[in-house]
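Table 4 source record.
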Amino acid sequence: MRIFPRALRFWTALLMVSWWGLLHVAPAAAGLAPSRLSGETAITSSRDADMIAVQRALENKLVAQKLRDYGVAPADVQLRLASMSDEDLHTLATASKGLPSGGDAAGALIAILIIILLVIVILKLLNKDIIIK
């Protein structure tokens, strides 16, 4: 004795074949999603782009420490940046493009350590010996 009667199996199979056939024949619609501005990164002018580049350079710990060593307060830096001309700000932004943008290399160091740890775990799972000479 079967769980499903023969007629139920036939109609279910027919329904599935027709459903798959319709899905295969139906045209696919695709398009680009409209872009929208986020509040943080809306750059409306070249001055805004230069200001963001300088701000990212000032987030670097070495630059912030040097400014503190020279006795410049962060509030003074922000006031000076706001009062700079477009040409001076652009010159400062192009000069600071070679600097890393904020932070230090802690994230890269952590990523390298995780990769090394994963390689060791994979080698142990494959029963390989790790010998460091």
